[in-house]
Amino acid sequence: MAVSYADALRYARDKRVVLSDEFYLLDLNARQYATTVSYLASLDQIRTVINLTNRAIESGSTFQEFQKAVKESGIELSPHHLDNIFRTNIQNAYAHGIWTQQQKNKANRPYLRYSSLTDSRVRPSHLALNNIVRGIDDPFWDTHYPPNGFQCRCSVDALTEAQAKKQGITPDDGLMGVQPDKGWAVSPVSYGKHLNDVLQEKIDDALLTDTPLARKLSDIQNEALISQQANKSIVKAFEPMSEESKQVNEAIIDRVFDSKKDIEPSAIRMLTELVKDDEQALTDLLKNAVVKDDKSIVAWMKRSFDSLMLIAKNLKSKITGNNIKGFDSLKLQKGNVIGIQTPTLFKTSAQAGKSITILDAKGVALDLSKINGLNGALLAPDLNLEVVSITDDEVVLRKTNELATRLFVANNTLFNLY
Q: Which CATH architecture has domain 243-417?
């Protein structure tokens, strides 16, 4: 079974590791770095394996499913080599996130200790690094921060100054002859070169020999830049988690564990943000992305929502409440079709309002009551609802295949209205 994000979460909880907000953006961060795949002759093959790796990690696929997908693409690699590719991709991204967290807390924990396992499977060169203690900004970590080889199981613990002195800070002569595996002396700041840098190197090389290849590489580079910019926009839209948000986040994670599904971390963060009444930045981002047809952000939004449906899909034939965000200012008539284009919170509010009923609602929303009893539902993007009836006290809506055609923005929530 391949390493999954859920596995990483379980491991952290078992070890009582408090994960920073950055962990819940891990899948976005992972896309910022290139995985170089040796033994593959063409760029197309390299790109195919990288894309299949990311897709498998995001969907929680097993290694066997990943292996099958690679084979079906016409690429022949040994199971051992594929396993290395698959595990290394997530190891590097995870290590970068931990390093970032340690750097933010270095005023309190200014030292790091290398920790290797001591069983029969550990490599002698990795065992030699065990319990080395150096300052967090020591150049030693630029070349020795794990992973230090394929399928490396080593880690690094952050220590207070008192803990470091008690353990014993490793002197310079204690580092002599201690080396990572060949080709793995890479700083955690830049695990796996930035995708754009790797592509630029390949473009520069291709320009010397093959102009058509250079153009092809340039197209891929442009796609990468668009994806990177989209990821940055998503990260920027997430607010730092408050204590209340952290509790909601933990409840969602519990539900992920119970469902035995592997949900990408940024999908969990998206749901954490959208169930907040005061959430704004993410709604604005998604709204603007839909209006401007920003395919990268819209694709992320829909992929994330679909993955969340695996853990909390609404199975009721109808759902009720009195508050759809932005709904009150709509001037509705019977027969109107409302097209909801971004995930939209639908709940019962303490403030009095019209009763709203949505019919044929099975499978078109997240049932938030399944996530530790949260109130209401999160309506799916691209959901079209026809007004069946409307009175002073009640609105009845029904899912329809008819599309809304006129764009309408109410209270920063995006609808189409027909």
A: Alpha-Beta Complex (3.90)
